[in-house]
Design goal:
This protein is mostly helical and 173 residues long. The chain has one domain (3-151). The protein has helices spanning 3-53, 59-105, 110-149, 165-172. Helix 1 runs antiparallel to helix 2 and helix 2 (59-105) packs antiparallel against helix 3 (110-149). The mean pLDDT is 82.
Length: 173
């Protein structure tokens, strides 16, 4: 290897470290999503067993069926979100391959590399929004479960006020 080729190789390696680090982060996100997905599947199986044991026209059965519907919706949304995260990794890998092909084989793929990287980032953003959406849906399911035990009082607190420490301190007492 000549000095120019070695220097080009080092520059290329330096250029692809950031995208490969991003792959690690997306893989961690995918792991979190897969864990949430597995918990949903386990909970669905448990709810199905509960529904089979309940009377057809009971209030508890109606609430359990509503929870089952929410969990099924969550699993479908999580599956889509995990797909976006996995496709984001594919986009990052194409970015790295494109960078190497451009630098070493004379492939004129600068636009390909840019498009692949931007697409990967857009898919990652979509996956992050999917995770946020799943958290909000899971809170709705928890609210339904709480309502099976008791009706929580209306605290008269807006969503924005929940982020203030003073509101938190008032709610504790």
């Amino acid at each position: 290897m000549t000095d120019v080729t070695l220097q080009l190789f080092q520059t290329t390696l330096t250029s692809v470290i950031a995208p490969m680090t991003l792959v690690g982060g997306v893989a961690f996100l995918t792991s979190i999503l897969a864990n949430r997905y597995g918990r949903c599947i386990d909970r669905i199986r448990g709810l199905i067993r509960e529904i089979k044991a309940l009377e057809v026209e009971s209030k508890t059965r109606a609430i359990t069926e509503r929870q089952l519907t929410i969990l099924y919706f969550r699993t479908r949304a999580l599956k889509f979100t995990m797909t976006m995260a996995a496709l984001s990794i594919v986009g990052i890998v194409f970015t790295v391959f494109g960078a190497f092909a451009t630098l070493f084989f004379g492939f004129h793929g600068t636009y390909f590399v840019i498009v692949a990287f931007v697409l990967a980032l857009m898919l990652l953003i979509g996956a992050l929004f999917g995770l946020i959406r799943d958290i909000l849906i899971s809170l709705k399911a928890v609210e339904l479960e709480i309502r099976t035990v008791y009706e929580p009082p209306n605290l008269g607190v807006s969503f924005r006020d929940l982020f203030r420490l003073s509101t938190y301190l008032k709610l504790r007492h």
